[in-house]
Design goal:
The protein is about 30% helix and about 45% strand. By secondary structure, it is α+β, with helices and mostly antiparallel strands. The protein has a four-stranded antiparallel sheet, with helices on one face.
């Protein structure tokens, strides 16, 4: 839950984006870094800042299969993208595995997200503001 809130909750401020993404990347392996690099290369974060867009994520649920290690998880969330003229609500589903690691200030839960991937991220509602 924490990773998804940090990775997907964005405001049009370069320092806020950098701080949240840095914290999120402590909780995941290179798969999350690659996703971040891809978004950055496509200008996603620049567009957030230039368009004064805010993005919020509400985690609806996380299912974890503890019967096999590393533990598989699937996260179900709603993503709200707030623009000057509209708010777009999106369904967001991601999955990956959880590996036990030492707890630290950067990773207080002691789990590292591995093989993280977005399964679904599509519009479900657009509301004019």
């Amino acid at each position: 839950k924490t990773f998804h809130q940090l990775f997907f909750t964005l405001d049009p401020d370069d320092k806020v984006i950098h701080t949240n993404i840095t914290k999120a990347l402590y909780l995941a392996d290179g798969s999350a870094k690659r996703a971040y690099d891809d978004l950055k290369e496509k200008g996603y974060y620049t567009n957030i800042i230039a368009g004064n867009i805010s993005q919020q994520v509400i985690v609806d649920s996380v299912s974890v299969d503890i019967n096999e290690y590393p533990y598989r998880f699937r996260c179900y969330a709603t993503q709200n993208i707030i623009r000057a003229t509209s708010t777009v609500s999106r369904i967001l589903i991601t999955e990956g595995t959880l590996r036990n690691v030492s707890r630290s200030d950067n990773n207080p839960h002691g789990f590292l997200i591995e093989r993280w991937a977005t399964i679904e991220n599509r519009d479900i509602k657009i509301t004019n503001r």
